[in-house]
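Q: I have 737 residues here and want to know how they pack in 3D. Can you give me a structure?
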Amino acid sequence: SGQDMVSILQLVQNLMHGEEEEETSQSCRLQNVGEQGHMALLGHSLAAYISVLDRERLRKLTTRILSDTTLWLCRLFRYENGSAYYHEDDREGLLKICRLVIHTRYEDYTLEGFNVLYTKQPVIYISSAARTGLGQALCNQLGLPLSCMCHVPCNTVFGSQHQMDVALLDRLIKDDVEFGKLPLLLVANAGTPGAGHTDKLGRLKELCEQYKMWLHVEGVNLATLALGYVSSSVLAATKCDSMTLTLGSWLGLPAVPAVTLYRHEDPSLTLAAGLMSSQPVEKLRALPLWLSLQYLGHGGIVERIKHASQLSQRLLENLKNLDFIKTSVEDELSSPVVIFKFFQEYSNRDQTSHAAQASTNQHHIISNEGHIYDTFNQWLGEQLAQLVPASGVDVVELEDEGTCVRFSPLMTSAVLGTEIQDIDQLVDCLKMKIPVLASTLQLREEFEQEVRRTVGLLYIEDLGWPGLGVVRYSYHSDGKNDDKQEKELEKINTELLKKLNELESDLTFSLGLEFGGQKNCVYIGMVTDDLDVSELVETIAATGREIEENSRLLENMTEVVRKGIQEAQLQLQRANEERLLEEGLLRQIPVVGSVLNWFSPFQASPKGRTFNLTAGSLESTESMYVSKAQGTGSTPPPTPTSSLAKQRLPGQKAFKRSLRSSDGFSETSSISHCDDLDKLDQRSPNLSPSQEQGPLETERAGEQKEVVLAKTDTEEDIHHDKSPPDCTKVEDQASQR
């Protein structure tokens, strides 16, 4: 029967928010969409309304919207005499361009199809620094084998390591031509997805003209074409055959399409490739951009892109002043993407300790350090993104640099609303994390050596753990089977982790990562430079031994108690048989026994057994009934505890190195005590009359002096045990002071 609009909208609301309505406010769930965002969203609903107009009016309106938007974008990004294709998927524009180039280079492709491609195989060249999976996606959509895709390596000797090697590309093209292949298209980057570097577009354009290839450019640095000052490397992109622009992320506009600008003179081929459509409704894809560009204006668009560039420059200037931070940017004056990582020179960290090792060991150490740096930078990026979410930093994996932290404001600042104060906060957080990383990296090797020297501890090498290290307590198995030994090991290390977390320290102890970590281990997190590694390792070992001894004591006690119960049952059974013999058979008959006990009562002392846990033996309870109290027996042995707990000052946490503050405290105490003695010596000459008296009176005066120093409640305490004249004299002297 259908539903009304209110019910349907309520259903949509429930599907959007689910059960979070009670827990989370609406402002936290939905992205903060500004007025310019509402303009872009309005374009989608307006396009649906406009599509119901009559055909002639719809044709005029869509032609106006499409021509205006294309003209504005070509002027804004300095792309003269260009056409535009609007698409939702940012890879779809390149796919249409590939089809256009195939139709252009293979004249009989429309009639013969793949037979033309089979006789002369096309080749598409893509940089190895391009987006992951781009080449495979193109081959799948075009129906081409993967052999048609050629990945061009980046520079290894000269130039940026993220730029395409032009000389090597030239040799690859020559080899393909000699093998009868047709070089078709080259995809270059104006800002690689990882590091944001720009290929040498000028030389690549010359190479494409030489071999009649199509040059397509994409990347985040294309946004800087709208600025007043543009670097020459990016400005060369205006001479390319096509480029893809992602205005949604650059300007913070939700649900706006990507745009591919291109130059081609044959409209029939562009229609065959799908870059143009005869359907007016498809032309309405440009309506959200048409509305948003008018709302922002030329000044607003340039201001947003300029603000993103200023953010990257602000961060880059601050990073130059930080130690242990290595940056990787293409142009320090105008690079919209900043790549940085934590890195400590090998020569600065215990170089002398490794000087005597062999070259193979050195290579192994450097390889391990690379993995450790990747782990630490992964942790650093996650911490910065969590502490300053408005910055938009993320972690990126680069081929040569490894794991790095990336700041790309052109892709994030407009959406997140990043400001200058967010960059300053990011730098402050980075300053707090760098000493922790440096200290942990420096103490990591010392921790490993201490653990390997300690009996009962096993060092576990886990290069993927961002922290001090991983340790496992290994106990003596005593010939137990593997299953029981594994359970006992898990029990001891779990209890060890619990005990360590109960200590008052700044360290974090955990079971490691949720996936891929070692079992039955204690993972120690980041540390500071005041950590006492030896105390930490000794505490872990002592706590583990304590847990193991308690476990063994419990096992032994369980066995002793079991045997004691069995022995007590046997003794009680024998005692019961002896009682029957003493009482006689008649007393066991119910009625006769009661009458007999009434005429002739039988006095029998109760006999029981007590089990002494300390001695592990059975004892009689006769002494208990005689003395009306339970005997204490021998004193039980003390519970094994760690004897390595150091005396700490009030407020000092565990595993901290002892500073000179404790010595200063004792010196201050001694000085104050000496001051009190000096005051006492100053008061003693005033009591000279007492010193001139006899020995007994002198002794009494000494006692009175002690009373004066010890008692301060009332004056009666001072007058106690002292003659009035002397007391008056003391009071007068005190008042004069």
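Q: Anything worth noting?
A: Residues 533-583 form the longest helix (51 residues). The radius of gyration is 43 Å.
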